[in-house]
Amino acid sequence: xxxxxxxxxxxxxxxxxxxxxxxxxxxxxxxxxxxxxxxxxxxxxxxxxxxxxxxxxxxxxxxxxxxxxxxxxxxxxxxxxxxxxxxxxxxxxxxxxxxxxxxxxxxxxxxxxxxxxxxxxxxxxxxxxxxxxxxxxxxxxxxxxxxxxxxxx
Length: 153
Description:
This protein is α/β, with parallel strands linked by helices.
């Protein structure tokens, strides 16, 4: 969440149930994303018992698990964690585009906030540079959007 947060309401995750789907591909990066996200959720007051954290093989599998959690119900927000690093083939664009579009579609179809922290980077160095901040940002976005939707319901 770059830029100014002026006017932002205080984030309070107490009583929120959050689902996290983490891709195992590029595990060093996604594990760091998850650690930062979990630590931030805890600091925002989300109880560990109210966090459901699952792992899937890669970024293309993240939306399937998000959809299963959304269908199950009971979550105030979901978080998508993954890392796609550009390679020498078109595969990067396919995985990045399809996973991103699918995450957005699930959020809209289920009217459920999904913080998308599936990194799409040119190289490993860019991913490492973003892993902690983006994990923390995902937790903040999930809590903020859960709070916002509660006020709009």
